[in-house]
C-alpha cells in the first residue's frame, strides 16, 4: 500500500511555490533542480526523501505511531493565517521531525516524523489548574493551522542534533515561564494522551510539548514560535543519559512583537458657528471691514443706472374722453408737480391727463436718443412715465452734485465748461462721464505742459464712435466748433476728423483752428468698426496691445494679481477697470498720436536702440506698445497701512516703482520716492501719501 503520509506530503509540496521548492532543494543539497518545472522539482524532493536517511517507524502492541519520511520542508499548516490562507514561507520555517503518541504513551516512534502528523494545538490556559484540567482526558485531534503564529523570519535558527529513543518516564511536570515568553519542554503523562499546547498570542505564553517525540526538531519549533532554542537541561527525580524528560532553563529572550496602530477614520470637524461669529466680531475684523466699506471705488466715474419698471395708467376715462386727455396733458405739463395732486381728484379725465403729462415733460427736458428708445418700447398715451421722469431727474442731480463736490470743480474755479444738456446724458448713459473725464484730462495736460486753453470753450456734445473705445467730443468756443476723437479710457486726443466736418465758424474773421488730422491707422480702425456687423466685430484696442513677458503678464497685467481680484467682487472689477486705464495711459505716445510707428520700432526707441531699416510700405494697423517698466504687479485703493486713499487716487505697483495715478484716466500724479506731486496735492487736497486732508 502507498504511504498515506507521503501522499499528504506531496499534496503539501504542491501548495508551495517554485521559489519555495527550490529553497527546499537547496537546503536538502539536491542538485540539478534549477531548470526543472514545479512537478519535476516535487518528484525530485520525494525521491530524495525515499532514498534519504529517514528511518521507518516501528510500532508496538501497546502504542500507535504515525511516521513518514523526512521531507525537511516547511509545511504550510505551520504558517497559515486565522483565515486558513497560507502565509509566505521562509527558509527558517522548514519542518522538523515531531512525533505525537496516543493514549497509552508507550512505544517507539519514528525519529523523522514530519510536522504534518502533529496533533491539534490549543492555547495554554493562564492558570496552572486550568493547564492540568485541559491536559487530562483530551483526545488527539488534527492540529489547527491558526494555533501557531507565523514565523516573522527575523530569528536565527540553530540546528540541534535529534536524539532517538523511547520515553518511559511517566512523570509530568509543568513549570511556568516568566513574563518574557520562555518555553518549557517537559514530560507529561495522562490518560488522555500528550498534547501540543500553544497559545495564539505572540508573547508571554507557556508552550507544552510532547516529550515522547524525541526526534522533533526543537530549533524549528522555537523558530515557528518566535523564540530561539536553548540548551536542554534534565529535570526530574532521576537523571540519565537515556532520559528524555528535558526542561529548558529560564533563559528569557525578549520577543519583538509588532504593534499596529488602530485605524482611526478621518473626521471632518464642523465649524463652530459661535467661534466664527466671535472671530468676525473681533476688533481687528470690525476695523478691517469698516476700512474696506469706507473705500470709494469710483470718483467721477458715474455709475450706470437701469431703467425702472413702467406700468399702464389705471382708471382710464371713457374712449370718447381720451381724445381730450391728450390736449389736457400738454397744458398740465407746465403745471408744477405738487399742484397736480389736487387735479387728479377732480375726475378720471384730469387724473389720466396728469399721468400722461410726464411724457411731455420728458420730451422738453430730456430729449435725446435714450428717451426715443423708451418711447419705442412704451406708449406715451397709456403708460405712467412718472417713475422714469423721476429717475432721470435724480440721475442728473446726482451727477451734477458729484462734480461740484469734486476737486475738479474747485480747479475750474467754480465754473462749469460743460453744457447743461450734457448732465442729462441725452443720447448715451455714459455721456456725462466722458465729458467730465475729458475735462480732467485737459486739466492734467495744462498742469503738466503749462499750456492754457481757451476759457470760453464749452463742451457741447459727446458721441460714441466705437463702442467702449472711441468718442467724439464737440467743443464750441470763440474760434468756432471743433470735434476731437478721444479714447474713452483716458480721453487722450487722437486727432480731428476731416476739415469740412470740423470747422463751423459763424464769424469768418476768426482765426482758423489748427489742423490735427486723424492718422490713417485710426481712420482705418474706425471705418472697419463702422462697416462691420455686430457678429464680425474687429479686434478691440486691448487686443492691439503689445507687451513683453507673456508668461507672467496678460496684456501688461500680472496674471497672479488677476486671479486674486477675480474673487474681490465689485472692488475687484473697479480695480481691473482702473488698471486698464493705466495701461492705455502708459503706452508709447506714438501709438495714439504723432508719427506712426510699429510696435517693434517703439520698443527699440524706448530701449535706446537704433531703429530698424525703414519699410517701403507701411500698414494701416494700430500699434500700441506698453514698456516693461509699466507692467502692473498690483493696484490698490489704500495705503500700505490699509488707510483709504483720496477718492480720486489709486496706487499702482510696477516692477520698477510705485506710482500714484488718477482713477478716472489712469495718468500719473506722483511716485513712491517723492509722493504725490505738490501741485496735485494742492488741487486734490491730499498729503504726499495720498490721504485726503480735507476729510481728516
UniProtKB/TrEMBL annotation:
Q: Which InterPro entries does the UniProt record give? A: Rho-like_N
The UniProt annotation puts the region (Disordered) at: 147-180
**GO BP, sorted A to Z:** DNA-templated transcription termination
- Please state every residue range assigned to the domain named Rho termination factor-like N-terminal: 12-53
What is the species listed in this Swiss-Prot or TrEMBL entry? Lyophyllum shimeji
Q: What is this protein called?
A: Rho termination factor-like N-terminal domain-containing protein
Q: Which SMART domains match?
A: Rho_N
Domain of life according to the entry: Eukaryota
Amino acid at each position: 500500500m502507498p504511504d498515506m503520509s507521503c501522499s499528504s506530503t506531496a499534496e503539501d509540496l504542491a501548495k508551495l511555490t517554485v521559489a519555495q521548492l527550490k529553497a527546499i532543494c537547496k537546503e536538502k543539497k539536491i542538485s540539478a533542480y534549477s531548470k526543472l518545472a514545479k512537478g519535476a522539482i516535487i518528484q525530485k524532493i520525494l525521491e530524495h526523501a525515499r532514498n534519504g536517511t529517514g528511518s521507518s517507524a516501528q510500532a508496538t502492541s501497546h502504542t500507535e505511531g504515525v511516521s513518514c519520511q523526512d521531507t525537511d520542508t516547511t509545511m504550510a499548516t505551520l504558517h497559515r493565517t486565522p483565515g486558513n490562507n497560507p502565509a509566505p514561507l521562509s527558509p527558517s520555517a522548514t519542518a522538523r521531525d515531531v512525533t505525537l503518541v496516543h493514549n497509552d504513551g508507550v512505544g517507539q516512534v519514528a525519529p523523522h516524523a514530519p510536522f504534518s502528523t502533529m496533533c491539534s494545538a490549543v492555547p495554554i490556559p493562564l492558570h496552572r489548574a486550568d493547564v492540568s484540567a485541559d491536559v487530562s482526558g483530551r483526545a488527539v485531534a488534527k492540529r489547527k493551522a491558526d494555533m501557531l503564529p507565523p514565523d516573522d523570519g527575523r530569528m536565527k535558527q540553530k540546528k540541534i542534533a535529534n536524539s532517538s529513543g523511547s520515553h518511559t518516564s511517566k512523570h509530568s511536570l509543568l513549570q511556568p515561564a516568566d513574563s518574557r515568553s520562555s518555553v518549557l519542554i517537559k514530560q507529561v503523562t495522562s490518560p488522555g494522551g500528550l498534547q501540543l499546547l500553544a497559545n495564539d498570542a505572540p508573547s508571554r505564553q507557556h508552550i507544552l510539548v510532547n516529550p515522547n517525540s524525541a526526534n522533533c526538531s526543537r530549533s524549528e519549533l522555537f523558530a515557528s514560535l518566535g523564540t530561539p532554542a536553548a540548551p536542554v537541561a534534565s529535570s526530574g527525580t532521576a537523571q540519565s543519559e537515556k532520559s528524555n524528560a528535558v526542561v529548558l532553563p529560564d533563559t528569557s529572550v525578549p520577543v519583538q512583537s509588532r504593534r499596529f496602530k488602530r485605524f482611526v477614520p478621518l473626521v471632518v470637524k464642523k465649524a463652530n458657528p459661535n467661534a466664527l461669529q466671535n472671530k468676525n466680531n473681533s476688533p481687528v475684523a470690525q476695523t478691517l471691514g469698516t476700512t474696506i466699506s469706507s473705500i470709494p471705488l469710483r470718483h467721477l466715474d458715474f455709475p450706470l443706472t437701469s431703467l425702472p419698471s413702467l406700468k399702464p395708467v389705471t382708471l382710464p376715462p371713457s374712449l370718447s374722453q381720451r381724445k381730450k386727455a391728450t390736449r389736457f396733458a400738454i397744458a398740465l405739463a407746465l403745471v408744477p408737480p405738487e399742484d397736480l395732486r389736487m387735479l387728479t381728484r377732480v375726475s378720471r379725465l384730469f387724473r389720466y391727463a396728469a399721468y400722461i403729462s410726464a411724457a411731455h415733460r420728458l420730451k422738453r427736458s430730456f430729449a435725446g436718443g435714450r428717451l426715443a428708445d423708451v418711447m419705442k418700447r412704451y406708449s406715451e398715451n397709456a403708460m405712467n412715465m412718472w417713475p422714469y421722469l423721476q429717475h432721470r431727474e435724480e440721475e442728473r442731480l446726482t451727477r451734477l452734485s458729484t462734480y461740484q463736490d469734486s476737486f475738479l470743480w474747485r480747479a475750474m474755479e467754480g465754473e462749469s465748461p460743460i453744457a447743461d444738456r450734457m448732465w442729462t446724458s441725452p443720447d448715451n448713459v455714459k455721456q456725462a462721464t466722458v465729458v467730465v473725464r475729458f475735462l480732467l484730462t485737459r486739466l492734467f495736460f495744462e498742469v503738466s505742459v503749462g499750456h492754457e486753453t481757451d476759457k470760453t470753450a464749452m463742451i457741447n456734445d459727446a458721441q460714441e464712435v466705437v463702442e467702449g473705445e472711441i468718442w467724439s467730443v464737440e467743443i464750441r468756443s470763440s474760434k468756432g466748433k471743433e470735434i476731437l476723437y478721444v479714447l474713452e479710457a483716458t480721453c487722450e486726443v487722437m486727432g480731428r476728423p476731416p476739415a469740412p466736418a470740423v470747422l463751423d465758424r459763424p464769424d469768418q474773421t476768426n482765426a482758423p483752428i489748427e489742423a490735427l488730422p486723424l492718422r490713417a491707422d485710426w481712420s482705418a480702425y474706425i471705418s472697419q468698426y463702422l462697416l462691420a456687423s455686430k457678429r464680425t466685430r474687429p479686434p478691440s484696442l486691448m487686443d492691439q496691445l503689445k507687451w513683453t513677458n507673456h508668461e507672467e503678464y496678460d496684456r501688461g497685467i500680472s496674471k497672479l494679481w488677476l486671479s486674486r481680484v477675480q474673487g474681490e467682487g465689485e472692488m475687484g472689477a473697479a480695480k481691473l477697470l482702473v488698471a486698464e486705464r493705466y495701461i492705455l495711459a502708459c503706452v508709447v505716445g506714438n501709438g495714439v498720436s504723432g508719427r506712426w510707428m510699429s510696435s517693434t520700432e517703439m520698443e527699440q526707441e524706448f530701449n535706446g536702440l537704433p531703429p530698424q531699416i525703414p519699410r517701403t510700405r507701411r500698414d494701416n494697423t494700430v500699434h500700441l506698445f506698453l514698456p516693461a517698466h509699466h507692467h502692473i504687479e498690483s493696484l490698490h485703493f489704500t495705503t500700505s497701512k490699509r488707510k483709504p486713499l483720496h477718492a480720486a487716487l489709486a496706487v499702482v505697483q510696477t516692477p520698477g516703482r510705485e506710482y500714484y495715478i488718477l482713477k478716472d484716466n489712469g495718468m500719473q500724479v506722483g511716485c513712491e520716492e517723492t509722493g504725490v506731486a505738490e501741485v496735485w496735492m494742492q488741487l486734490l487736497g491730499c498729503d504726499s501719501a495720498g490721504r485726503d486732508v480735507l476729510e481728516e
